[in-house]
Each structure stands twice: as structure tokens, then as C-alpha cells.
TrEMBL record, chain A:
PANTHER family: CONSERVED COMPONENT OF ABC TRANSPORTER FOR NATURAL AMINO ACIDS, CONSERVED COMPONENT OF ABC TRANSPORTER FOR NATURAL AMINO ACIDS-RELATED. InterPro entries: AAA+_ATPase (IPR003593), ABC_AA/LPS_Transport (IPR051120), ABC_transporter-like_ATP-bd (IPR003439), ABC_transporter-like_CS (IPR017871), BCA_ABC_TP_C (IPR032823), P-loop_NTPase (IPR027417). Belongs to the ABC transporter superfamily. This is ABC transporter ATP-binding protein. It comes from Roseibium sediminicola. One of its GO terms (molecular function) is ATP binding. SUPFAM superfamilies: P-loop containing nucleoside triphosphate hydrolases.
From TrEMBL, chain B:
Its main location: membrane. The chain crosses the membrane at residues 6-29, 36-57, 69-87, 99-116, 146-163, 199-219, 225-242. It comes from Roseibium sediminicola. Keywords: Cell membrane, Membrane, Transmembrane, Transmembrane helix. It is found in: Cell membrane. InterPro entries: ABC_transp_permease (IPR001851), LivM-like (IPR043428). This is Branched-chain amino acid ABC transporter permease. It holds the Pfam family BPD_transp_2. It is a multi-pass membrane protein.
Length: 256, 320
């Protein structure tokens, strides 16, 4: 469903992504691992259209999307989260979620003046869904707090919550587990599995938490210095000597 | 007599407050909600004022028009013209960072002023356009002031209701989201460029309407009236002081700043003649000082941006 072909991204003289190619199959949960600064987040920015690659191609659902802007990709079913939470800080947590669904009737100046009842009924539905999502993320009690005032972990959850507010085809999750407590983490894992198995979402998951990668991801792609080091199932990747050296450390066994 | 004078003064002030409140509402759409730094309010004000003047004045052989149309046509025309001027400006400038818009809009407002000042066929150059009909202008002086205040008040209330509805609707939520975090809004599928243009044009139309209301009240419009000092700077202070992101704040700010501004004129008029030149700057200094105090002690303005999510029917955490 997603094909990356020789992607290169230069920041000035620095090459953050250096000829990256791999494919993501529909219905899979692909893990993306690698040391800090390997270029994982930059790769997400390229896929999601937030950055334009220096060279290389991106195909999504059989279509060349290399030059599309991020809002256009969203409408094709590609949703992403940010590693550093990008909350709308003056909006409430609830509003942060309610703004997500695409093509809401109330987003047009004219329907707000001329077909208010349609706007209101759509709002009720969006609001219900947003409350549901907040409840799932255990954020109901802060629904009406400004998002800028939430804790770091709560912002992280809100980030994840936004992806649940729309019907996505491909979801890019950038370290969703960082800063989230263990019990909630298990719940998130279950949710990702459900969305994957029952709703058919495809995921790419960046994580440093190997437990989560092992549990959810097949295949796993390991990046280092802007390239794909190796790609395969978790065991293959984990026991690869290059991965051990570059990322997981010499002392093998249970890297967590 | 004394009392009558006072009532007159109050009426005069109230009309100006309403006109400025319209400008501040327009700026609130652009800055308070979309985060667009428009420093050329005077330009849209001028376009509105002159458009309505040309549309509603009687035929004049020295220039194109007037077209002798109803004032309502003139006011709608003023909004459309300001919107039409805003469109290419926004199209070009909104793609850049916000400081570019600030600089570009100052420049464009100045160009508009110079064109108006030096162009005889349409705007009658430096002499401006006179005998603009004022709605309900041919009754007694006091009655006509009252009637005009009523009209301006109705326009302001209508504008307030229309803008407030947009702000509480998903449109407003989306605009505030774009303002708060552009990258995330894009990632959530919002067409940021187009939405900004929408807000820019919407705000400019209100500024144009403000200009038209001013021209008809004044019964004439000259290039002098497009002073960026009073048409741009004052409006910014009104919004910042009243509370950007809050429509009532914008209106309150307009009232507070205009009262100080015009009362300070009475005070400085009493100064000896040799200080006449300094007087204007003393008034400016007063306003600047006040802005400093507000920013220091109430940086969000007198009425800060409200939390808007819970304005709708559902109570917080109702059944969950
Ligand atoms: N906008 C930018 N300008 C310049 N350099 C950048 C920019 N964004 C990323 N980089 C550089 O690109 C490299 C890869 O960064 P990236 O954020 O993709 O790493 P990562 O794999 O996500 O690391 P981590 O696991 O720490 O999140 C880093 O060396 C970083 O300094
Ligand atoms: Mg990263």
C-alpha cells in the first residue's frame, strides 16, 4: 500500500535520510526502529507530506504522492502523530479531537449561516465520538482543560486520540508509548490490534520499547544513519549483528 | 445648553465606538482567530469608504460616478470591494511567515492611500469626495445623530452575531487550531492556505464596512482620513487591550480606547498654543502607556479568549 523508493532528505549539508526504500503491505503493522537520529521521524515527515524529499518517490495506494501536501494525504486516509506533541494549545482537549473529522459541514462559512441545523447535528455526532475517545484514553476528566495545560503524557495520548477520530487507511505512530504509563500502554496495544484486525488499519510504528515492537509488529524495519539496515520479522532483526552493534547493544538477550 | 452639548458629544463618541468596534471585530477574525498580522487596516477601511462614496453620491462631472444608489447598496459594495482587494493580497502574502504579511500590508495600505490621493478620475484626488448622503440625514441635527447611531448599532450587533456564530462553529475551531499549530492542522487535513485566505477576506470585508459607515457619518471622505495612525494603530491597540480572540473584548477595547483617545483631545486642547504640535504625541503616549500597563498586568487583555468547547448544549462529562 505504501512504497518508498530511494528517498533522500538533505538538511543543508546534512543528509538525514539517505536512499531509503521499503514497502508496507496493506493490513500490516510495520515496526520502525533504530538509534536516535537514524532518520525515522524525518522519514515520517516525508511520507506524511510535511517535508518534500530531495529525491526519491513515494507511492501510496498505487498512486504517486511524492509532491502532495499533508492535508491532501490526510484526505486519502493517511494520518500521523508527532513525536513531540503538537497539540492545539488554546483549544480544549475535547476540541482537539473534535477538529479532526474531515469535511465537517460547519467548516464552511455559508452552512454556519444558512444551514445551522445540519451543522448542529453533525456536531453532536462528532462530540459523542470525541467523548468516547477521551474516555478510552482516560482523559475524560480533562475534556474541558486547555490542551496546552495537560501533562506531557496526556498530550501524547491526545496526539494518539486524534488518529482515532477519522477513518484512516494508514496510521503513522511516532513513539506513542513514550511517557505513557504501563497499564494504559497495554490498553493502547490492544486498541492498535483491534484497529488493525477489525477495522483494517495499516500501521507504521516507531518505538524504542522493544516489548511493544515484539508484540505488535511484523515486519520490523531497522534504520541507521538514514538507511534501512535490515528488514524482516522481529527475531531476524533482533539477532542481526549489525542491528546489535548499531542499536540494541552487544549484550543480546532481552533488550527492553 | 451645556447638557445638550454633552449628549451630543456622547452620541458622537458612541457612533465612533461602533465604527471602530467593527474594525476591531474584523481584526479579531484575522489576528485573534487566524493569527494573521494585518498592519494595513487603513487600506481596507479606505477601499470601503471610497467604494460606498462613489456608489451613493450624486452624479459628478469631474469624476467617474457617483451612481446615486441606495446606501445599503453602497455598504454591500464596500464589503465586496474590500474583500476583492484582500483576495490577491492574501493569495500572495499568506503563504509566507506572518511578519511578511505585516510588512506587505503596511506597504499596500500606503499604496492605496497614495493612489487615492493622487488619482482625480475616481477618488477626486486630495480634495476627496463630499456630500455623501447620510441615511436619515435630512431630519434635525440631534435626531439624525440618534438615528445614525441606531443604524450603526444594528449593523454592529448583526456583525457581532454573525462573527460569534462562526467562532463557535467548527469553522472557528479549525481557525484557532491553525493559529495554535499550523503543522498539526495540516496533518489533520485542514487546507491552511485556503482557510487563512478565507479569514483574511472575511475580516477585510468588515473593515470595508467600517470605512463605509465612517464615510457616510462624516458625509465626506478625504485621503487625510486614512491616516494609519488612527485607522490601523488604534484598532490594534483596541483589540490587544480588549482581548484578542474575544469578540466582546474587541468591542470593549474599542470603547475604552476611543473614550480615552477623544477625552484626551479635550484635555490637550486646553494646553497653551505653543504645545499644539506636542499634543498629538502626548495623546499617543497616553495610549501607548496604557497598552504597556495592560500587557504587563493583563497580557491576555481585559476579556481573555474564552474556552469555547463547552458553550454547546452538552454539559461537561454529562453521562460519561
Ligand atoms: N529540520 C531539520 N533540520 C536540520 N536537521 C534535522 C531536521 N530534522 C531532523 N534533522 C536531523 O536529522 C537527523 C534525523 O533526525 P530524526 O528526527 O529523523 O531522528 P529519529 O530517528 O526520529 O531519532 P529519535 O529516535 O531520537 O526520535 C538528526 O541528526 C537531526 O538532527
Ligand atoms: Mg524521532
Amino acid at each position: 500500500m505504501l512504497e518508498l523508493d530511494e528517498l533522500v532528505m538533505d538538511f543543508g549539508g546534512f543528509r538525514a535520510v539517505n536512499g531509503c526504500s521499503f514497502r508496507v503491505e496493506e493490513g500490516s503493522v510495520t515496526g520502525l526502529i533504530g538509534p536516535n537520529g537514524a532518520g525515522k521521524t524525518t522519514l515520517f515527515n516525508l511520507i506524511a507530506g510535511a517535508l518534500q524529499p530531495t529525491s526519491g518517490r513515494i507511492r501510496f495506494l498505487g498512486e504517486d504522492v511524492t509532491t502532495l501536501a499533508s492535508h491532501q494525504l490526510f484526505h486519502k486516509g493517511l494520518v500521523r502523530t508527532f513525536q513531540i506533541p503538537h497539540e492545539f494549545h488554546k483549544l480544549t482537549a475535547l476540541e482537539n479531537l473534535m477538529m479532526v473529522p474531515p469535511s465537517q459541514p460547519g467548516e464552511s462559512l455559508f452552512s454556519n449561516w444558512f444551514s445551522w441545523s445540519k451543522v448542529k447535528s453533525a456536531e453532536t455526532e462528532v462530540e459523542r465520538k470525541a467523548y468516547e475517545t477521551l474516555e478510552f484514553l482516560e482523559l475524560s476528566h480533562v475534556a474541558h482543560q486547555r490542551a496546552g495545560n495537560l501533562s506531557g503524557g496526556q498530550k501524547k495520548l491526545l496526539e494518539l486520540g486524534r488518529t482515532m477520530m477519522t477513518d484512516a487507511r494508514l496510521v503513522l505512530l511516532d513513539e506513542p508509548a513514550a511517557g505513557v504509563n504501563r497499564t494504559l500502554l497495554r490498553k493502547l496495544e490492544t486498541k492498535i490490534e483491534i484497529l488493525n484486525k477489525e477495522r483494517g488499519y495499516t500501521f507504521i510504528l516507531i518505538e524504542h520499547d522493544m516489548e511493544m515492537i515484539e508484540k505488535l509488529c511484523d515486519p520490523v524495519v531497522c534504520m541507521a544513519e538514514g538507511r534501512v539496515l535490515i528488514e524482516g520479522d522481529f527475531q531476524t532483526v533482533r539477532s542481526n549483528p549489525q542491528v546489535l552493534e548499531a542499536y540494541l547493544g552487544e549484550t543480546t538477550g532481552d533488550a527492553a | 445648553m451645556e447638557l445638550l452639548g454633552l449628549v451630543n458629544y456622547a452620541l458622537f463618541m458612541a457612533i465612533f465606538i461602533c465604527i471602530y468596534a467593527l474594525l476591531a471585530l474584523g481584526l479579531n477574525i484575522q489576528w485573534g482567530f487566524a493569527g494573521l498580522f494585518n498592519a494595513g487596516i487603513a487600506g481596507f477601511f479606505a477601499v470601503g469608504a471610497y467604494t460606498s462614496a462613489i456608489l451613493t453620491t450624486a452624479m459628478d462631472p469631474d469624476r467617474i460616478g457617483g451612481f446615486d444608489l441606495h446606501f445599503i447598496v453602497g455598504w454591500i459594495g464596500a464589503m465586496l470591494a474590500a474583500a476583492l482587494v484582500a483576495w490577491p493580497i492574501g493569495k500572495i502574502c499568506l503563504r509566507f511567515r506572518s511578519d511578511y504579511l505585516a510588512i506587505a500590508s503596511i506597504g499596500i495600505a500606503e499604496i492605496i492611500r497614495l493612489v487615492i490621493k493622487s488619482e482625480p478620475a475616481l477618488t477626486n484626488g486630495a480634495r476627496g469626495i463630499a456630500s455623501i448622503p447620510r441615511p436619515a440625514g435630512d431630519i434635525g441635527y440631534m435626531e439624525s445623530q440618534i438615528a445614525y447611531l441606531a443604524i450603526v448599532l444594528v449593523v454592529l450587533i448583526a456583525a457581532y452575531i454573525l462573527v460569534e456564530r462562526q467562532f463557535n462553529a467548527p469553522w472557528g475551531r479549525m481557525m484557532r487550531a491553525i493559529r495554535d499549530n499550523e503543522g498539526a492542522a495540516k496533518a489533520m487535513g485542514k487546507d491552511v492556505e485556503f482557510r487563512r485566505l478565507e479569514a483574511f477576506i472575511f475580516g477585510a470585508a468588515l473593515m470595508g464596512l467600517g470605512g463605509a459607515l465612517f464615510a457616510h457619518f462624516n458625509r465626506s471622505i478625504t485621503p487625510e482620513a486614512i491616516d494609519p495612525m488612527v485607522a490601523t494603530f488604534l484598532v490594534w491597540i483596541m483589540l490587544i487591550l480588549g482581548g484578542s480572540g474575544n469578540n466582546r473584548g474587541a468591542i470593549l477595547g474599542a470603547a475604552v480606547v476611543w473614550i480615552i483617545w477623544s477625552v484626551s483631545e479635550i484635555a490637550t486642547d486646553r494646553l497653551p498654543h505653543e504645545y499644539a504640535v506636542q499634543a498629538k504625541y502626548i495623546r499617543l503616549f497616553l495610549i501607548g502607556l496604557m497598552l504597556q500597563l495592560v500587557l504587563r498586568f493583563r497580557p491576555e487583555g481585559l476579556l481573555p479568549e474564552p474556552l469555547r468547547g463547552d458553550l454547546r448544549s452538552t454539559k461537561p462529562g454529562a453521562d460519561r
